[in-house]
Amino acid sequence: IFSGIFSAGLLEWRPDVIGGTPDSLYNRAHELVAIRTFQVVATAMAYRRLSPDLTKVKDVPLLTRLFRHYIYSVSFCNSDDEHDPADGFYIIKPKTVRSANATAWVRIVDKDRDIVAKSNGRVVERTRKIVADAQPSSITAHLPRRVPLDWFDPTEFNKLPAELRARYRESGIALPAAHHWVAGRVPDKFKIMNDTTFMRIYGAEVMALYQLPTDEEVEQMRENGTLNDDDEAEDDQEDDEDGPGSGEDMDQSDG
User: Fold this and answer.
1) How far is CA 110 from the centre of its chain?
2) By C-alpha distance, which of 99, 192, 114, 191 is closest to 149?
3) Which residues of 218-240 are buried (b: 16+ CB within 10 A; e: fewer)?
4) Phi, psi at residue 83, to the nearest 5°?
5) Among residues 134, 150, 133, which one has the least CA distance to residue 97?
6) pLDDT at residue 235, rounded to an integer
7) What is the pLDDT of residue 82?
8) pTM for the full model?
9) N or C: which end of the chain has fewer CB within 10 A?
């Protein structure tokens, strides 16, 4: 992985998720390295215990969409720390629209990642701290599109205009409610459930907290011209195009 980073002319793995675009040369380099190294590792059976579908390893458009979703949706929604020169730590800026569950999940992932990094002798990316009077994150003003519905705090979500809430009618639920968590972590059994079982046992309870416009309300908004479907149309177009992560580009990057 590190050789791939260096061969791409990068000094470190740090995509520009705040100010950059997916198609910038800098971010494209990260994308190609990520996809290529994943293909190499996957075909070497490194993930065999997860029983992956290896026929998808060569599906570069799919891998590109997955990479961009994770980097520019998930990471964008989670990364906006402020450096404190007094002690060198990074202040975590609160995200007022993000749910407590989503925040807890992100911090668990961060903590586990730091533990693994230290155990492998690697330098931890950054040391974060929570400050009571920290300024809200600027990311709060930009609602993420491709996130589960429960990324949002239910109360804050239900305050949004109906036109914005309508965007998330097809979004799923990612996590069980907090009272199902064990010792501050989500129950392991939910991770292997199919969607139907998860929604029956956990998801429906969480979904009920969110006020989503009905079909009739959505149709009325469309007739009134208050519902903007442009973003959805762009998403569909992206899914139909190979984009910059096509197989041809991948072959050229190997040269």
Assistant:
1) 13
2) 99
3) beebeeeeebeeeeeeeeeeeee
4) -70, 135
5) 150
6) 43
7) 58
8) 0.56
9) C
